[in-house]
Amino acid sequence: MKRKEKAVVVGFGWVGQANALALLELGLDVSYFDPTEPPRHYGKYAARYERLHKLDRVLAIDAPDTWYVVCVGDRVSDDGVQDIGNISRALDSLKDAKGGVILRSTILPEHLEGLFFDYYMPEFLHEKKAVEECDHPYFFVLGRTPAARPEPEFFKTLRSRAHKSFEGTPREASLIKYLSNIWNALRIAFVNEFGDALGRPTSKEKLSEIDRVIGFMFDNRNYLRYGRAFGGHCLPKDSRAFVRSFGKSGALPLLSGMYQSNDRHRQLEKDLPLLPEWYSEWPDRHISGWKALSEFFYAIKKHLHLI
Known about the structure:
By secondary structure, this protein is of the alpha/beta class. It folds into two domains: about 160 residues, Rossmann fold (3-Layer(aba) Sandwich), CATH 3.40.50; about 90 residues, N-(1-d-carboxylethyl)-l-norvaline Dehydrogenase, domain 2 (Orthogonal Bundle). It has eleven helices and ten strands. The chain is globular. The N and C termini lie close together (about 10 Å). The mean pLDDT is about 90.
């Protein structure tokens, strides 16, 4: 029987924890390394958390069948300068590893060159559904470096479960990640600005009118519902970083204006308590008969410890 793959998640924040909990469900032995002990973000998975092992050093269980999944966060200043210092240091600590390196951190294309990893697999997670979306990704986007070692077995499972798959260069994978987040931020800003133009929703009746108009046009889809301004971990910082990197000399007026619109709407929120909070998740996917059968056989093999 083939040896069971091991995963070490490097960086145990909300993205790292989602990856660790999902990889357990995929049948891997999972450990994590983080110099701190972050709070647990996904309380309903308490039993899975108990199956994770914390390492006191990142290469403590290094072996050829170990995959390091780097989920260290970037930092973006108010004017859009991206700092990947923590990510770079995490990757440098793995240069002598016998195992492979999968980068999941969000990094602008301009910063990818010179970094040490085998695969760049950006995440497309929503905070409330991050574990489920790691386990059954809507997008499977993979950037392969020229010298990448053979990919891990669990990629096959993720690829088969994904709604859409893309394989190319790390730069292309990065661009898809930024396109996804910026498109979502732009849609939120547009819908909110249009709703604001219809009048101040100071009553349930007025709010209902705005919702009916926008909901009819966009079928109440994710990111196209009137409500509060966009925020969270990713949309603000990733949009700022992209505009700074690609919008030299005012080349991106639409995306730059998106921020002004979102900030204006955020100020309105203070006087409009009826504005609903919203969260998003990827739409449910239709599962074909063949894919359902594949999932069924995978579950049987896992139960029999054949994978």
